[in-house]
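hey so u asked for the seq, here:
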Amino acid sequence: MIIELGHYALVLALATGLVVSLIPLIGARRGDEAMMSVGVTGSLTQFALVLLSFAVLTYAYMVSDFSVQNVWENSHSLMPAIYKFSGVWGNHEGSMLLWLLILTLFSALVAWFGSNLPSRLKANVLSVQAWISTAFLLFILLTSNPFIRIGPVPAEGRDLNPVLQDIGLAIHPPLLYLGYVGFSVCFSFAVAALIEGRIDAAWARWVRPWTLAAWTFLTAGISMGSYWAYYELGWGGWWFWDPVENASFMPWLAGTALLHSAVVMEKREALKIWTVLLAILTFSLSLLGTFLVRSGVLTSVHAFATDPSRGIFILAILCLFIGGALALFALRAPTLKSGGLFQPISREGALVLNNLILTVSAATVLVGTLYPLVLETLTGEKISVGAPFFNLTFGLLMTPILIALPFGPLLAWKRGDVLGAMQRLYVAAALALVVGLALYYAENGGPVMAVAGLAAGFFLMFGAIADLWYRAGFGKQTFSIALRRLKGLPRSAFGTALAHFGFGVTVLGIVAVTTFETENVVEMKQGMTTEAGGYSLTFDGLRSAIGPNYTEEQGHFTVRQGGVEVGDVWSSKRLYTARRMPTTEAGILTFGLSQLYVSLGDPMDGGGMVVRIWWKPYILCIWGGTLIMMVGGFVSLSDRRLRVGAPSRKAKPVKAMPGGLEAAE
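ran it, structure tokens below
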């Protein structure tokens, strides 16, 4: 009965979505407040219904109800509780329900916190959100119902994919979907504004916090996914240019461009048409990523193996929303005012350069991802576009942004002084070059161009500090006054500086680990020692262990430096009993920002084991930088000017003072 309640809640959510899709839209056309208010009530109701449905599926997993086909296919009674919970979205049907839950959550947030939005715009936005949720509710109910019963009831489940039995599954998909789906709000704002035919700086001010929130969560999701693949798959890499990785990276690039474009539109009322187009394209890339993962057209460790009919359904949704939005844009764009003008050398110009590079980079990744699919469809020829293509093209495209990014915040709006910005940054540039050279020689050299990459990372970091330094007036004001000015800067200024600083840290980590990492593949027997990264690893042998639903062989390694023991590493090969599927559990030992990474291979005839050992200097900078970027995003969101629906601050009471003076308490 409980399972049927979850299914019925989805049906009611579909009915609610159909109502919200039409009534508020008609009300906006007629100026009927009562009809427009249906959007608020309906969005909150739809979220409650989808939440109920998701809770029912979670309950089925937690109690191991194997009468539900989805639970039987993706769970096991011996699985730890955390994996039963995260297993809810460790499959196609459950992950789509999570996707829908987050979509309706964002609709509910717009309904609840959008009190300062014009009623017509708010009604249109909620209707567009309801169009999307209705389409995906139909998709779930018709092709991906997670509540299908089976009989007779199996005694035991088939277990969750062993690769997914990790804490990363509990964190990575929800964060990624918060980013993916968060951009639906930007899309809905864009379509709603096109329907109304009015786009101005106020529109950008309403869109910007939703863009920032989605970008921050997507950054977190991509970063967590990268680290999860790094330690779980045992390949020793942090990014593989896998098609499904690219599917999440493309909306991140477009979303970053949208975030910066919205700033120009809000401040200068420029780039209006471009900003609206970016809002449409960013969510379109999110939908494209959904199609690539779930259509069966890709072969990837990340992709869900699904039947083609689901892919055709999602493709229809993709064509409907992307095609419809672009058609509406083409119809309305000629009637929209283009906005203010500015000089090429200005802060607007720097942000336009940022947009140009990011969008071209996203297009390059899109071409590299889709070209093999298109070629195979047209000619039957199978090719792969791998890391060499992406590293070369993407690396060359991103080089200008590494140089130009610190200049942007130091240029004035409308007309800037590039020489003045250079004078402010020469110390940062010189210091970055010196520190980059020092790090290069400290790591015993490498390719000469690595110096430029290291210096670029430090230049981004020092440039972010310089931005706050000059904003506060250090060097021109007394230290106490400058410190007070620094404390008085808006939080969005600190958020921007943190995001740029974090980007520099990530660039530094990428360049350092690419340049200085070492890899050894050796056959080791018990008692043998090998060297890696200035450390000695001694193989102490194997031992057997039994987990809740797996058996494993664990290899123990003692790590020494200069003959002194500094730690140990356990690496293992697991076999999950239900699926008879092996996995490799890497052993990782951290030294500061660097890591020693050990992965067991296959046993050899002579009694030894193949062991792969990597020394990865400064690799934690990659994820540490993204963490700083996320903090910057949340700091910016905490700025009152960026919070939609924030109540206005009331004036403080005024009290009469002796001598006729007045002062606020």
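The longest helix spans residues 347-379. The chain is about 60% helix and 10% strand.
lmk if thats what u needed
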